[in-house]
Amino acid sequence: MAAKNAERGLVEQWREILSLHARTQCELDRVLHGHGLCASDFEVLDVLAEGVASGGNCAYRVQEIADRVHLSQSALSRLIARLEKDGLVERGMCAEDRRAVRVSLTEKGSALHGEVQPVQREVLSRMLAGAD
């Protein structure tokens, strides 16, 4: 009986995590839509901006971004193509591996990220405040 209760508690905890994620994702999409972005778009811009801010890479391989934003390589490629079309990122060949593609922020992408980051962080703060 105790094992069943523990199992039930574990499943309820998992479902609460999924629910919080879904609510937060929907709220991010709603708020970011006003800036022409969805949550996944912003995550890619944020990963690229973090690289620049840390003084490290200003360009990442597509696979490195995929690992950080939890999208399949094909979904990420479509997203990057859309961001590139909007002038927010640019793609280039990787000097170390000619089969790989590197992605970096453009000036326009960096400016939009700077404008939208406080909005995204406010949503995260508000949505995750009660998650503890």
From TrEMBL:
UniProt cross-references to InterPro entries, sorted A to Z: ArsR-like_HTH, HTH_MarR-typ, MarR/SlyA-like, Tscrpt_reg_MarR-type_CS, WH-like_DNA-bd_sf, WH_DNA-bd_sf
Keywords: DNA-binding, Transcription, Transcription regulation
Domain HTH marR-type span(s) in chain numbering: 1-132
Record's keyword annotation contains Plastid: no
Pfam families linked to this entry: MarR_2
PANTHER family: MARR FAMILY REGULATORY PROTEIN, TRANSCRIPTIONAL REGULATOR, MARR FAMILY
Protein name: MarR family transcriptional regulator
Organism: Streptomyces achromogenes
Lineage, uppermost ranks: Bacteria, Bacillati, Actinomycetota, Actinomycetes, Kitasatosporales
